[in-house]
Amino acid sequence: MTITEPMTLLTDYVLAGVTGWLGWRLWAARDEQASRGLWAVAFGALAVAALAGGSHHGYTLLLPEGLLHALWKVTVFSVGIASFGMVCGSAIAVTSGRARSLLLALAVAKLAFYSLWMVAHDQYIFVIVDTGAAMLGIAALHLWSRFRHADAASRWMLAAIAVSVLAAGVQAAGVAPHPHFNHNDLYHVIQVAAMVLFYKGAKLLRDRPKTAP
């Protein structure tokens, strides 16, 4: 059996395992908080994306083309669901009233557009654009919340976003510590740390009232 990118397969599976486990813990601790539940769904979707993406990278020479294509589609659609869950979860935790309704509507529209676009496209750049837009939105929400309420959840969320940006920079720059440990592998390892920070923030989220006092 020939695995094309064994370290990428392994680090993706580690990322999937850690993210899935954290997502399960977050779901169990959601305590009727929709914000936590949506972040737990996002964690689950990211775990699926990492599992499918790792399989696509590792089993290129072993799986038929149709199955490889299906794995890639699962990867990109799962990432879209994850960014949707993150934005909606943070919107419910940070905003209320018309602002929340607008943000949730925009998140639904973004997911619909992204999903329809990715039906006919496979380039990873579109995944980066969708995820980057979500991270910018989440960062803005939690920067505002941290400034306004000094909440602990936002502190963890902003730290997680900073680590995710570092991971994305490493991947984009092609930083490879070793010939058998490339930029994708390093990205996965750094992203594990980011997911731990996201979990620490998400488990502290509480839904704001639907209408502002």
Description:
Helix 1 runs parallel beside helix 7. The chain is globular, with a radius of gyration of 17 Å. It is built from 7 helices and no strands. It has a single domain (6-202), classed as Rhopdopsin 7-helix transmembrane proteins. By secondary structure, the protein is mostly helical. The relative contact order is 0.15. The model has no long low-confidence stretch (mean pLDDT 94).
Fold blueprint:
Elements lengths: L5 H23 L5 H25 L6 H30 L2 H23 L4 H26 L2 H22 L9 H20 L11
Helix pairs in contact: 1-2, 1-7, 2-3, 3-4, 3-5, 5-6, 6-7
Second-tier CATH architecture = Up-down Bundle
Q: Low-confidence stretches at least 5 residues in length (pLDDT < 50)?
A: none
Mean pLDDT: 94
Count of alpha and pi helical runs: 7
SSE order: HHHHHHH
What count of structural domains?
1
Classify the beta-strand content into a percent band.
under 5%
Q: What global shape is seen?
A: globular
Would you give the CATH topology? Rhopdopsin 7-helix transmembrane proteins
Compute the CA-based radius of gyration: 17 Å
Helix residue percentage: over 70%
β-strand number: 0
- Oligomerization status of the protein chains: single chain
* Distance from first to last alpha carbon: 62 Å
Structural class: mainly alpha
Give the C-level CATH assignment.
Mainly Alpha
Any key phrases for this structure?
single chain, 213 residues, mainly alpha, Rhopdopsin 7-helix transmembrane proteins
